[in-house]
Each structure stands twice: as C-alpha cells, then as structure tokens.
Design goal:
about 190 residues; globular; mainly alpha
C-alpha cells in the first residue's frame, strides 16, 4: 500500500509541467508550440532563453529529488529509487499536460541528487565536459548516463547501477530522433559554449 501511495505522489509531482508553467506565466507562450515542441529544459533554453531554461532545469531536477527523498523524509521502508522513477514517468508522460512531457534527463538527474550527491556531481561534470566537446545536448545526456552507470559500478552502488542503466536506456529511447539527426548531421548544436 505504501508503494502505491508514494508512487502516485511521485508521478503527480513529476507531472507538474515546469516548462509549460514558466512559458505561460513568464512569457505568455505555450512551449509545446515552439522549437522542438518538447516540454523539457533544452527546448526552454532554446525558445525562452537562459533564465527560463535555468528555472525549468532546477524545477525538473527538484521533482526527481523530492520524489526520491519522500520515503526517507517520512521514515518508511519504501525504496526511494523506485519511487523516483515514477517522477520520471510523470515528467515524461504528465497527467497535467496531455501525457506529452520532457525527455527524462533533468528529472532522472534529480533522482541521483536525492540518492547520491557525489554521483550527481560526477554527472554534472560529465555533462558539461561532453557538452563542451560535442555541442550536442542530447548526446551529452546519453554519455552522462553511461558514465554515471560506470561510476555507480565503481562505487559498488548496486541499486544505483540498476536504476541508472534503466534510466539511461529510457533516455536513449526518448532521444531516438535526436540520435538520427546527429547521424544525419541535422541535430542543432548549442552556440553558447
């Protein structure tokens, strides 16, 4: 029963459409109708700029972190990593935005922040290094997932290995169109690095 309750709360938390809210309130704009149409941080950065992108990134990360920490804060035996995954599902398939959400990167990172701040730091460094070298956000997200999984294995964090492998596979699935565009050299590169 606890798992159902926590999973439901985490899903609803993940379903809060940060990009849609920031776009509508701050810019009177529906982010789904601009850029890639995706409700994630990358499209927000591209369409609405640095400030809006940073707010959406932070909000999406915090959704994953809060969902992951709920069982810990309420002192239950519920596995926090499993609950965090439901926030990612909510972010990707949000109830409050017709099940059209983001690509799971920032909210997945939020799970790791809640479970292992050290590993989260490794992920941030990996992401920005990869982004600096490749100029592709999508590729950097995928590379970060692989490196984080390897780092979890080195740290002997068995639960995190499984969750990171699953999240990385999901991020790859969500970025399949980006991967095709990278291969075809039509994926947009970032210009600000």
């Amino acid at each position: 029963m606890d798992y159902i309750l926590f999973a439901t709360v985490a899903y609803l938390l993940g379903s809060i459409p940060s990009a849609l809210i920031v776009g509508k309130i701050g810019y009177n704009l529906d982010i789904r109708e601009h850029g890639s149409g995706n409700m994630g941080a990358t499209n927000t950065f591209r369409v609405l700029g640095l400030k809006a992108g940073a707010i959406v990134t932070a909000a999406d990360i915090l959704k994953g972190t809060l969902a992951t920490l709920l069982p810990v804060l309420l002192n239950t035996d519920v596995n926090c990593l499993i609950i965090g995954i439901f926030a990612v599902l909510g972010h990707t398939y949000p109830l409050f935005a017709k099940f059209r959400g983001g690509k799971a990167v920032a909210t997945s990172a939020g799970i790791i922040l809640g479970a292992s701040p050290l590993l989260f730091g490794i992920m941030i460094l990996t992401f920005f290094l990869s982004l600096y070298l490749s100029k592709y956000v999508s590729l950097s997200s995928i590379i970060t997932g692989f490196i984080a999984t390897i780092a979890a294995a080195i740290m002997r964090e068995h639960g995190l290995i499984i969750v990171l492998a699953a999240l990385t596979a999901f991020v790859i699935f969500r970025h399949k169109d980006n991967i095709k565009r990278i291969i075809n050299k039509t994926e947009p590169k970032i210009k600000w690095m």
